[in-house]
Amino acid sequence: MPDQVYNGGLDVAEWVLYAFFLFFFGLVAYLRREDRREGYPLEDDVSGRHEPLGGLLFTAQPKVFRLPHDGGSVTKPDGVREAVPANARRTAPWAGSPLEPVGDPLQAGIGPGAYAQRAKTPDVMMHGAPRVVPLRVADDFYLDKRDPDPRGMPVVGADNAVAGTVSDVWVDRSEYLIRYLEVALEGSSKRMLVPMPMAVIQRSRKRVRVDALLAAQFAGAPTLGNPDQITRDEEERVSAYVGSGALYATPARAEPWL
Questions:
Q1: Where are the beta strands (DSSP E) in 86-232?
Q2: DSSP secondary structure letter of residue 246
Q3: Is residue 257 part of a domain?
C-alpha cells in the first residue's frame, strides 16, 4: 500500500508561515475588539446618529472591571455613550469641518480646552489616601530650601496684571512632584489651581507668570468640591481651562500667523 501524503509539496517552513499568518490575523481581530470598549458606539459627525457596532469581529464582549479600594465595578462596553456638552458650532455643514467656540471660548470644551469625563473621585495611592494634596495636608513634604518657594508670590497673567497670590503648593505624593499652584484671587475669596507646567516661577522678579491666561480670566477657572483634595474629573477640567487659554485667551491667538 502506498504511503499517504498529507502535506503535499508543503514543507515545515511553509506550515510555520501559514500558522503565523493565522495567529497574526487572530491577534489583530482581538486587538480591534478590545480597543472598542470605551467611546463606542461611534456617532455620525454631522447628524449624531449612532454608527453600527461593526459585527462580531469588531465588537468587544462585555467585561467587568473591579475597581480597587471598594470602588465598585464597571462593565465595558455597556452600549451607552454619554453626551459631552460643548459650546461650539461647525464652521461648515459637511463632515470633518472644524468647530469654533460659542460664548466664552475658555468654557467651550473644544480644542486645547477639551477634556475627558473621568471619575468623580481622587486619584489615590496604594493604601487609598489621596495622591495629589496641598502641602497643608501633606505635612511630611516640604520644598527644598535651594529652590524658590512660590507661596506668597504674586501671580501675573499674559497681560502682566496681577491675578492673585500663590497660597499653597499641591504635590503628588507618589511621584514627588509639584502638580499645581493654588492661587488666591485678587479681591475675591475664590481659590483656583494652575498646573505647574503652565506656570513659570520668575525668581529674579519674585513672581509667578502664567502666559496661558489674562489676569481677569483666572476668576472663571473651575473650583474644587473639597478645598483639600482634587478628583480626577476636576484635574481634567482645571487643566483644560488653563490650557484653552493658550489658543483662546485673546482673539489674536486663534488667528493664523500667516
A1: 88-90, 99-101, 132-134, 154-156, 162-172, 177-185, 191-195, 200-202, 207-209
A2: H
A3: no
Residues 6+ apart with CB under 8 A from 116: 236
144-190 pLDDT, tens digit each: 999 999 999 999 999 999 999 999 999 999 999 999 999 999 988 99
Domains contained in the chain, number: 2
pLDDT of residue 40: 77
Task: Find residue 208's DSSP bridge partners.
Answer: 155, 201
Other C-beta atoms closer than 10 Å to the C-beta of 66 total: 8
> What is the residue type of 160?
N
* pLDDT more than 90, % of the chain: 55
Give the residue numbers spanning the domain of 181: 118-251
- In the chain, where does DSSP find H-type helix? 12-34, 232-248
Cα–Cα nearest to 191, from 169, 158, 161: 169
Question: Is the pLDDT at 237 greater than 60, yes or no?
Answer: yes
Domain membership of residue 102 (yes or no) is: no
Task: Please state whether beta strands 154-156 and 132-134 pair in parallel, antiparallel, or not at all (unpaired).
Answer: unpaired
- Give the end of a domain, one of 60, 81, 102: 81
For the chain, the maximum distance between any two Cα atoms, rounded to a whole number of angstroms, is 102
> Could you read off the pLDDT of 50-69 as tens digits, one per residue?
777 777 777 888 889 998 88
pLDDT in tens, 65-106: 998 888 888 888 887 777 666 788 888 888 888 888 988 999
Beta-sheet pairing, 207-209 with 154-156: parallel
pTM of the model: 0.82
- Any domain includes 94: no
